[in-house]
Design goal:
127 residues, mainly alpha, 0% strand, elongated
Length: 127
């Protein structure tokens, strides 16, 4: 069986903690944490810390991986959660539309999840 990747798990924990889009993923993560910690209060503290602090997310991922090493059922549940969460992240489609009475003069840029962008080139007085 494939080992659970700390970096993948950590990335998904951080993404799940990031608001509305991660609500379902966070619910699943909470169930995993409760199983790993065996105590709801301790799990809730770890989840809260993971939401508030990157080090908390690292600690939670480490605890989950550590618990999974001795609990094969938990390891399977974590792998399933990772697969579902990754799949959901890739299914977040974006549909860009220009419609109605829009009149475009020049270029139109529509995108999702882009990094640094400079529009205007060398003649841009603000650039």
């Amino acid at each position: 069986m494939d080992p659970i990747s700390m970096s993948v798990l950590l990335g998904l924990i951080v993404k799940a903690a990031a608001g509305e889009a991660g609500k379902n993923a966070w619910k699943g993560l909470a169930q995993l944490a409760r199983r790993a910690f065996g105590e709801n209060e301790q799990a809730e503290r770890a989840l809260q810390r993971a939401q508030d602090d990157p080090d908390g997310a690292v600690d939670l991922a480490g605890q989950l991986i550590g618990s999974a090493a001795t609990d094969p059922d938990l390891a399977d549940l974590i792998r399933t959660w990772i697969g579902r969460t990754q799949h959901a992240a890739t299914d977040e489609a974006v549909i860009n539309t220009i419609s109605g009475q829009a009149q475009i003069h020049g270029h139109a840029v529509q995108a999702r999840d882009i990094g640094s962008v400079q529009l205007g080139g060398r003649d841009n007085p603000a650039g």
